[in-house]
Design a protein that fits this description.
The protein has 1 helix and no strands. The termini are far apart. Keywords: Membrane, Transmembrane, Transmembrane helix.
């Protein structure tokens, strides 16, 4: 029971980390395009 809830917590943590990573990867080129566009 405890191990199952622990795994669920880890999965949520992993998904959050993956989401943040994808957001950063997605926003970095966009930020560069905006910066280059304004210069």
């Amino acid at each position: 029971m405890y191990r199952k809830s622990q795994t669920a917590g880890f999965n949520i943590f992993a998904l959050k980390s993956l989401y943040i990573l994808l957001t950063v990867i997605g926003l970095a080129p966009l930020q560069m395009i905006i910066t280059v566009d304004h210069v």
